[in-house]
# Entry
Amino acid sequence: MEDVKHILIVSRMSRDDAKAVHSGVSLCKKYGAELYIVEVIRDPLLLGGWNLPIPAIEEAYREAREEAKAEMDEIIRREKQTGLTIKEFVREGDPADDVSKLVEEEQIDLIIMVAHEEGRLEHLLFGRSSGEIIRRMPCSILLVKKEPEPALADEEGEKESQW
# Structure
């Protein structure tokens, strides 16, 4: 990775993205690279072209994004104070298309994103965009492993999924 000068972190503004940001910051400092962070927004209520207002999902999605954004903003603020160059982008639409365009526009050498199995809710909200991003990108990709959440146990000790 000698020629890494532009590193892009793909964020969905989830709490897990902080781990990818920490990896990106570390690599930027090591290689003297610039850090780019793209927040990919996909309207969770436009499912297959249908606008389906589901208040409980909409509220949970909004709250989770706000918490993750506050955490991400604090990490970025601290790193900028140390002199690290960070450029932030917000893109709305198809994640693979938006990331691909940004990779080309900014001459990205390395993409960093969280690797984990998408749960049912995440699949509903984002589709299988992580796999599509991985297949379509012309540059190297670093997947940061996120440990899966433990399964919940009901009163009888049987495990059940969170969703």
Observations:
- The chain has five helices and nine strands.
- The domain at 6-160 is CATH 3.40.50.620 (Rossmann fold).
